[in-house]
Structures are given as structure tokens and as C-alpha cells.
Amino acid sequence: MIELTTQDIRLAGRLLPVPFCLAGRSGTGRCRITIEKVLRILPGKRLVARATAEDGVNILIKLYLGRSAKRYALREVRGTTLIHNASIPTPRLLWQGETDTNTGNLLAFEFLEDAVSLQTDWQHTMSRSDHLEILREAMSMLAQMHARGVIQRDIHLGNFLRAGNQLYMIDGGHVEPHRNGPLSSGDSIANLAEFFAQFFPRYDSLIPLVFPEYLKARSRQARESELARLDSALSRCREVRKRGYLRKTLRDCTQFECETTFRRFLVCVRDSLNRDMMELLDHPDYWMDRGEALKRGGSATIVRVQLGHHDLVVKRYNLKGPLHRLKRALGPSRARRSWVNAWRMEFLGIPSVKPIAMIEEKLGPFRGRAYFVSEYVAGRDALATIKTSHQPDDQMAAISSLLQDLSDSRISHGDMKATNFMMSATGPVIMDLDAMREHRDAISFRRAFRRDLKRFMENWRDRPELANQFRGLLADLDA
Prior knowledge:
With 479 residues, the protein is an alpha+beta fold. It has 4 domains: 6-110, Phosphorylase Kinase, domain 1, CATH 3.30.200.20; 116-248, Transferase(Phosphotransferase), domain 1, CATH 1.10.510; 256-375, Phosphorylase Kinase, domain 1 (2-Layer Sandwich), CATH 3.30.200; 380-478, Transferase(Phosphotransferase) domain 1 (Transferase(Phosphotransferase), domain 1). Helix content is 39%, strand content 27%. It contains 16 helices and 23 strands. The longest helix is centred in the middle third of the chain and has 25 residues, at 224-248.
């Protein structure tokens, strides 16, 4: 079996040839472990993997690389010790050491067989009662940590592991001691806000049902003021997370590959960046000429493209003349707006087109044509679906629910035609996102959203019975 050094691991980036061997030293002497499966990787900095020790026992290995390797390894050890001392179940730290070349720090943990994170449980259940039970489990553990003066700064469901009937807390690298023992009310609420900010806003209705149980576990009385403070902290925390998330969509990181040159700006979902995708991104017009035209207009051309086993839609934003080119040269392209808005919808859990890539042609700082690549959504638009359906109640209710989600997030669409909603197998999906806008000011939002609703209702002018039914469903939003 191939044996890699830390230098080999750095050079391989994300393309590690597993399985491979890694030589190191622990407190008992030299050791040789076999890396079986990479679980997480931050190229050049950190590797988390399932491994096999020389005695055949499965272990979890954390390998830290780079100049800060020792500091991060020590932080992980301290955090793990804090969790253990707070009597919170956590995988045992078996040994710590270094790689054979002294260029990496190794930590070996107990490997929890058949462990499943609460995040995985959450994603695989649609039941409100199951979601409540998952949150109650998390609240119980957080209450215990907070009571013992321990804070998990990277607090999300992925850091709760269930193995058998036991729940564990992992990721000691982000665990800190509270400066004054048990967390105060304000510090507790701040940490809980960080936790609840990980969820889509539609789950906020569960918070009043589980927060009192956290307070009870902390021997505190549930008050309206406490819930209001949590709600306010949650709004601030979610806004900070959203801004960071959207900034990440335009730079090179774990999720996205980004390329900036004098002639173009390109960003693509890293998991989608295979050989065929690279050819499409290098020659989008070539692929569009050979695809199925969905729309050929002056301002935009939309084509369905078959790329291997994937159906994609490429939307090219055209420039109609010199004045139009000049107007678009310095501002963000409509493809960029569509890209960012699609990820905004992803962050908020509102169904829209799934973004794959975005290209801006440019000459230095001046932008030209732009392309937005997304997954193809199979189905018919809402206008055709509802008008031809004998029983459109479910479709109409689903669209009304989606509009409610937009309203709750203060988002206006800008061109709310019924044809901009595609009725997929899983429900309505929002299309055409380049005019979408998120409003900070309630007054500007209400003005824009009323225009959206007015545009939407114009679709049903020739069908008074549908118009009346939509008016009833959208009455609260219109008010």
C-alpha cells in the first residue's frame, strides 16, 4: 500500500489516493496507521479520517498541517478535555503525537461505529414531532454544558453524534470555558441564537416549544421577555451568517471553485466541476448552439443542455447595443445577481433553481456578457398547471406558502409572473432571479411586494374563480 508523507498530502489537495499509510509517533513510540476514508479535508491545513491502527482497531484521526498545526491540535485537546470534565459524553482521545517528519500533529480518537449525527437525522425526517425530539435532545445537552460553564462556539446539529442510545458532543476545537463559571442568561441566549440560526426560518415556530425545556433544565423560569431576547438575538445572528454565506459564494473555498482573470470571472460548485463542466464553462456558446432553445430573446437566451447524465439550463444575458453594453459594464451582471439570489434562497430554504455556475466576460474591470448555469427543473409552469388542473387546490396552496416564505424574509421578486414558478415533482420552484431583492426597510418591501402580488394576480384575470381563490389564500400577505 502507498505511504504518504505530510508533504504528499499537501500536494494532493483534495485528491488523496485512499487507502494510504501514514507514519507517525505517539507517546508510546513509532506508529503506522492506514487512512481508510477521508471524512473532512481542508487542503494544506486539516484532515479528518477514519483509520486503522496497527492492532487493527478503527480510530478517528485528526491531522493538522501548516504553521498553526500545533496550536490547533492543542486547542482540540483542551476542548475535548473540557467536554469530558463537564460529564458530557465525547469520543475518548486515545493518543496524540506527530507525523514521522515532524511536519504535522496527530490526534487519535475513539471511533464511534455506526454513529449518526443529529444533522443526518434531521435531514431524513419530515415529521414535526421528530424534529421536536431532535431539538429537545440538543437542548438537554446544551443546558448541561452551559450549566458547567462550557461553550461550543461551532454549534450545529452536525456536532451532535448518536451512537446506540447515547448522544455525544464532538469538535473540541471550538469548545471554550466560560470566564465566570455557568453561563449567564445573556451568554446562554447568544449561544442558543448561534445554534438556531443554523436552521431555515420556517422552523422558528419550534423554538417556543423547546426553549422552555432548556430553561427548566437550567432551573430558570420561562418568561416572555426571555423568548423575545432570543428572537432578537437570532435575527442578528442569522443576518451575520447570511452575509458571510453569500460572500463565500463569490470566492474560492471548500464549496466553490473561483477563477478571476483579465478576461473573465468564473465561479462553479466544486462538486460539479468535472471534465464536461469545464468544457461547457470554457465554451458556453458552443454548447448553447447545440442545446434545446427554451427562450431566444433580445435580453436573454435560455438553452437546455445535456451534459453527461445531467440536464442543465444555460442562461446568457445578452447586450443589445453600445448603450446597453456601457450601462452593464461597471455594475454587477444579471448573472451575478441570479447566482447570489439563488444561494440566498438556498440559505433561507426557499425552493428556487439550483445554481451550478456563473460566468462574466470582462475586459479588466469592464463586464460584458454573462452566463448563469443551473439545474434543469422538469415540469410545467404554474400558469399552465393550475389553469388546466381539475383540482388545483394543492398547487395553489403550495405557491401561497412559497409567497409567504418570501414575505417573511422581506424578499420581492420583481417579475412575479405565474410562468416564473415551475411546478416540479416536489412543489413550486422560483425561476428568473435577477430582479429579486431583499429589503432591509419594511416600507420599501411592502411597496415592492404589493407590486409583485398585483403582477401575480394579473395572470388569473380570465379565470375569476382562480383569482378569488388566490385572493383568499393571499389575503394576509396583501394586507
